[in-house]
Design brief:
Blueprint lengths: L9 E4 L2 H4 L3 E3 L2 H7 L6 E6 L4 E7 L4 E3 L2 H6 L7 E8 L2 E7 L25 E6 L9 E2 L3 H7 L6 E5 L5 E7 L4 E3 L2 H7 L9 E6 L4 E7 L10 H5 L3 H4 L5 E5 L12 E2 L5 H4 L5 E8 L2 E9 L6 E3 L3 H8 L6 E7 L2 E10 L7
Parallel strand pairs: 3-7, 10-14, 17-21
Antiparallel strand pairs: 1-6, 2-5, 3-4, 4-5, 6-7, 8-13, 9-12, 10-11, 11-12, 13-14, 15-20, 16-19, 17-18, 18-19, 20-21
Length: about 350
């Protein structure tokens, strides 16, 4: 059973627009349910001793005064900030780099202590996409393996915030963590694809604490009553996304329209007949024009596709996964899965 004092973590996916501003929107769900537990002024504490006072605007779901942090850590977009609630006036903040693992924090001369990645355990994230099922195994990012791969024992434990533990193991030759199927069984889920993000925290010995985030960017509270009734999966809120498989005609010098397939009907219905979306990748962004035929039976990407395609170096067979950002139907983060063995 979850304690009434438990406050979940939340994440923020950074874009180039975020990093050029002094204000940063944060998860509205966190602000709605837990905003009363946060002071108007809070301190953000980074692992290397860096501290920053910012203002919290609950009604607008904003942190104001963030630009110094973006500048100090040279954040450009594509990173993830993980916020861990400590008290009304304090959050620990962890910076996940574009490579999926915590960054190597710069040393702060005036900090009271040196950076130590073993304090709190080094974190890495696993993005979840509908195109790849996650049931029993994940491959940690190479940046994480370079730092800690040699210290992961063959047998590990996966620990959830409610204290439940599951046996797992690490295949060194494959650089793969396995045994997540036990978590799926415990939650009565066929896989972990109802979530948006998995966060793994390694204690440097043999335990990985696993946290789950759904499409609302807030850590999922595991309600044992919902699990036992088989309704836990229905309570989750997967992110809206759509997928484009790059075809030969998408590579023409003139764009006839890139279809948003009918299987993504729920998302298509949120768009008007002529709508603009913004797509982000690392420190870049592109405006794309969404259009619908008069009969509303076909939705396509028109203006902006050629520039987007060329900037990302897309080829036939590549797959673009567009996942909404901050629960917005007009802002998406794109992940590109390159084709294997397909000639351009």
């Amino acid at each position: 059973m979850v304690s009434s004092t438990f406050v979940p973590q939340f994440v923020k996916y950074l874009t180039n627009d975020d990093c050029s501003s002094n204000e940063m929107s944060i998860a509205s769900r966190f602000c709605y349910y837990y905003g009363d537990r946060v002071s108007d002024t809070v301190q953000l504490s980074i692992r290397n001793g860096y501290k920053l006072l910012v203002n919290f605007d609950k009604s607008e779901s904003l942190l104001v005064g963030m630009h110094s942090l973006f500048t100090e850590f040279a954040l450009k977009g594509g990173e993830i900030l993980l916020f861990e609630y400590c008290s009304r006036q304090l959050f620990n903040v962890y910076i996940i780099g574009k490579h999926g693992s915590e960054i190597n924090y710069p040393r702060i001369v005036e900090a009271s202590r040196n950076c130590n990645s073993e304090i709190g355990g080094l974190k890495f994230v696993q993005h979840v996409y509908s195109t790849k099922e996650i049931v029993d195994e994940v491959v940690p990012p190479m940046a994480f393996l370079c730092e800690f791969g040699s210290r992961i024992p063959p047998r590990v434990k996966y620990v959830l915030y409610n204290g439940k533990k599951f046996n797992g193991y690490y295949l060194r030759n494959d650089q793969t963590l396995r045994g997540l199927g036990g978590i799926c069984d415990s939650l009565e889920l066929p896989n972990l694809n109802a979530f948006d993000l998995l966060v793994f925290t390694f204690d440097v010995f043999h335990c990985f604490t696993v946290s789950f985030f759904d499409g609302r960017n807030v850590e999922t509270v595991i309600d044992d009553r919902l699990v036992s009734s088989g309704e836990f999966g229905e309570s989750l809120f997967p992110p809206f996304e759509f997928v484009v498989d790059v075809q030969r005609f998408h590579m023409l010098n003139y764009s006839y329209g890139v279809d948003v397939r009918v299987q993504f009907r729920d998302l298509r219905e949120m768009w008007s007949r002529n709508e603009q979306i913004i797509v982000y990748k690392d420190d870049c962004s592109w405006p794309l024009r969404i259009k619908k035929r008069p009969d509303w039976k076909r939705t396509t990407i028109h203006d902006g596709w050629l520039q987007f395609r060329d900037d990302l170096g897309l080829n036939i067979g590549d797959q673009c996964i567009f996942k909404w950002k901050d629960r917005s139907y007009n802002h998406f983060i794109v992940e590109v899965v390159k084709a294997v063995g397909v000639a351009p």
